[in-house]
Amino acid sequence: MILCGLTGSIGMGKSTTLAMFEEEGAAVWDADAAVHRLYAEGGAAVRPVSERFPGVLGEDGGVDRAALGKEVLGNKEALVELEAIVHPLVRQDQEAFLAQARADVAVLDIPLLAETSQAERFDVVVVVTADEEVRQERVLARPGMTDAKLGAILARQLPESERLKLADYVVRTDRGLEEARQEVRRIMLALREKNRLS
Question: Which residues, 6+ apart, have CB-to-CB distance to 172 below 8 Å?
């Protein structure tokens, strides 16, 4: 099985691209979906996160991500503490996914792949990118997003030029869905050929 790391900055279109890989037959793992599972009622992160950050437990028994965001955004120390709790649980979720995956290509969405030096874990890295103006328009259209919040998120991420240096393949999402889909198909063909020859 070829292990592919999919990454990109906020608003670049990772979720859409990941869905395209799934449509082409890849087994896919979504980091955001994993965090949602961990934060949902009964999730493995609920108790340790709510103990460290009192007041973030929602009425549904899970972690209220908006309340948690207010606690950690712009607070480097709190963010480090949160990541120390959540990242090992996310990695366990990844490993469970890989143990069950039955496909010739597995694609893992790792938003901070570059920032956390994880490129060496993967056979190939795919970077999803888009024009800066397109990205900003997409992100600021999200509910509750502000320029200040976007700035705080981007401050934790590498410049796009640095992320692109890690790429074995690049998918642009600002030229229309069909062009992005065609690029995903080309990548899948290349990965399957690589798998066949290995």
Answer: 129, 130, 179, 180, 183
Q: State yes or no: 165 annotated in a binding site.
A: no
Each residue's pLDDT tens digit, 71-82: 888 788 998 999
Mean pLDDT for 163-189 is 95
Strand pairing report for 124-129 and 105-109: unpaired
Does 9 carry a binding-site annotation? no
Residue 12 assigned as binding residue: yes
Q: What is the mean pLDDT of the chain?
A: 91
For residue 161, say whether it is annotated as part of any ligand binding site.
no
- Give the C-alpha separation, 156 to 179, whole Å: 30
173 is known to lie in a ligand binding site: no
State mean pLDDT over 153-176.
90
pTM: 0.86
Torsion angle of alpha carbons 70, 76, 78, 83, nearest 10°?
100
The verdict on whether residue 13 carries a ligand-binding annotation is yes
Q: What is the largest CA-CA distance in the chain?
A: 54
Query: Measured at the alpha carbon of residue 78, what is the angle toward residues 66 and 86, in degrees to the nearest 5?
Result: 70
